[in-house]
Amino acid sequence: xxxxxxxxxxxxxxxxxxxxxxxxxxxxxxxxxxxxxxxxxxxxxxxxxxxxxxxxxxxxxxxxxxxxxxxxxxxx
Amino acid sequence: xxxxxxxxxxxxxxxxxxxxxxxxxxxxxxxxxxxxxxxxxxxxxxxxxxxxxxxxxxxxxxxxxxxxxxxxxxxx
Amino acid sequence: xxxxxxxxxxxxxxxxxxxxxxxxxxxxxxxxxxxxxxxxxxxxxxxxxxxxxxxxxxxxxxxxxxxxxxxxxxxx
Amino acid sequence: xxxxxxxxxxxxxxxxxxxxxxxxxxxxxxxxxxxxxxxxxxxxxxxxxxxxxxxxxxxxxxxxxxxxxxxxxxxx
Amino acid sequence: xxxxxxxxxxxxxxxxxxxxxxxxxxxxxxxxxxxxxxxxxxxxxxxxxxxxxxxxxxxxxxxxxxxxxxxxxxxx
Amino acid sequence: xxxxxxxxxxxxxxxxxxxxxxxxxxxxxxxxxxxxxxxxxxxxxxxxxxxxxxxxxxxxxxxxxxxxxxxxxxxx
Lengths: 76, 76, 76, 76, 76, 76
Known about the structure:
Six copies of one chain form a homohexamer.
Chain A: H1 14-32, H2 36-47, H3 50-70
């Protein structure tokens, strides 16, 4: 991918960190299937299926571990 | 999502930390499928299925790792 | 949940820590499906199925990582 | 479970640590389904199925992370 | 495998680190199935299936944890 | 298993570490199903299936986390 989409893992708040974890999770999908049209067609397949939603939340949880550690858990 | 729902990973007790891990797990689902009606319709699909309940518990366990580390495991 | 069930991650021995990891894994299920009757009905579904037993052991392993780290691996 | 089966995570070698990880993985199954006869009956179900063998190896890998950290990776 | 493909986990930016995580994930597949023709034939099977894409993103997330830790999260 | 196959987690390079992670993943399978003939028969089942290849790569990624940490990420 030619575009720059990730320059830092540091975020101001844990919520922004969680949202970055979602971005990482989606990018993992996008690198595997770069065709936006195919992804669009697949979207209802997982966003309307309990099992797929849980699996998506698992990926986000894994990426959130990384982002949270990078930010030293936003401890003050 | 416009609302602020996560301002800190620090909790007073491990049990509150576990409950925060549940919130994180549900938010991971909600960011993927924001339509509350669809989520409501899917609820019986996973809350009445042994496999889905175990998968949900796996996501919670992953998020609990993050919250527990953030709280230095509530060691005294 | 109104009851207090988790006040510390510290245990005297690794075995008690493993048993706490099992408690955490079951609580993850129970928070998702609080109805004890439904859970009771689902029990044979996963306790008699090789795939579900492995998945349950995976959740326990993940929670045991947390409990073991909290206890500094019970090193002496 | 009344018996004592886990008194330490420390092992002399990484191989013994890996074997302890296998013990932990099996105990996770056994706590969920304590009936030895049922477990015996289920054994061919997963030991003759590629998917189940990979899932078993995943649980072992997760437990090995814990045991390896406990042993400070057997660094000299 | 005779070729040298991994000499360091250090990358200049988090994005390069994420791309290295993708490389590691693909290599994990390739070591298991080294036949490029078989892999080519299987490609549509997972790149057009929501469940497989999420599973691929899960592997990438796991490898990204390793790469990010190696780079001390690219903190400045 | 009587043979000695794992005396250290330390490797000279990250690539050797990745290959050790593959060995650990295969050993996890082999301890669960020690019969080489059964394993041989199952091999096409997972090496020709996209889902199984991704699952294998997930186990490798988990073991690589352990090996990489043991080697302090091969930082110089």
